[in-house]
Amino acid sequence: MKRTAALHYGWVICLTGAVVLFSCLGLGRFSLGMLLPSMGSSLDLSYSRMGLISTGNFAGYMVAVLLAGTVTQALGARKTIAAGLVLVSLSMILISFCAGFHGILILYFATGIGSGLANVPLMGLISHWFLKDIRGRAAGFMVSGNGAAIIFSGLFVPWVNADSGGEGWRTGWLALGAISLAISMVAAFLLRNHPREKGLLPLGRAADAPAVGKAKTGEKTGIFRRDILHLGAIYLLYGATYVVYATFIVTAMVDQRHFGEDTAGQFWAIVGGLSIVSGPLFGWLSDKYGRKAGMIAVFLLFTLSYSFAALGLSDLFLYASIFIFGIACWSIPTIMSAAVGDYMGPEQAVKAFGFITLFFGAGQIIGPALAGYLADVSGSFNTAFWMCAGLTACAAALSAALRQSK
């Protein structure tokens, strides 16, 4: 088998993966923040119910994480990813016809299942197609698809709402679902489960160490080993905090600071543009300086961003918060997808990434519901953003205690 070709097919996998994430997470999840203000106004939703809609999506994602390993083993990663995208697209299309909270909650739960079925096996492909020396950068380029989707939704949703009035959110869901359906076909055509299907070896120069060596006394083996549990705890704090900002920052700008929806959408698009850099940048930094150093730096940036958003001072602090969040946005999933390959090796990477994603999903379920409740009680999102700042400071401390992979 060949290790390289004129263009190693690993980069086709990487680019296709970015398009998949554009759909399953970018459109399926991160467009919600742009759609919530008009949807909440049209259906008279409280902040608590807005938070529960987001939580429903992450509950579905959690279910998918539990199923992803079994489904991927039965169907293969390519078919599982394509099926997940079809579920994402159909559920989003059906949301456009909903008349109330409960229908949206059920369908957005289904969107979460589809997102998880697409995302978990996709991130596991990184460890099959790329060796350790470029794994972080490859994962970073892949997650940049999320940023492209944020740019798109930040510009597209306000444009649709301007032409469709108070019911523009319905057109938005319908259009985003149709785009996701087209992407599912692209994924089914281009993705491959393993380099050997193309007669290739993984791309990169450094040989991976054995997946799991002899465990130290008292240390569990497999996905339950101490390092993976440690990564899971860190991933939980990321999941509980970034999603609060992604879900509610536009609503906070419109309701609290009285920005127009067009202006708020432009700022959300700026977040997307900056976040395209975050994955490759911090993936490269983690390849060069280690996963631990990369995570410490990222969580300190998140703490600063959330603190600026919570201060409620001049708009300059808000702009700084948005800029910092955009730069750091997708760095943690990038580093995590590379880290599980470092600790567990490529053969166990999908299982290990699925396991820590359970922690990530638990954080995403808790975060929006709690933030929506705090906003209803306090009358603003400042308390929720302070909560996020405290949790990411804890995540930086946990990252500092993480052992380097061998």
Automatic annotation (TrEMBL):
Keywords, alphabetical: Membrane, Transmembrane, Transmembrane helix
TM annotation in the entry: 7-30, 50-69, 81-102, 108-131, 138-160, 172-191, 233-254, 266-286, 293-311, 317-340, 352-371, 383-402
Pfam family name, one: MFS_4
Keyword Lipid biosynthesis in record: no
Gene3D superfamilies according to UniProt: MFS general substrate transporter like domains
Domain of life the protein comes from: Bacteria
Boundaries of every Major facilitator superfamily (MFS) profile domain copy: 12-406
Protein name as it appears in the record: MFS transporter
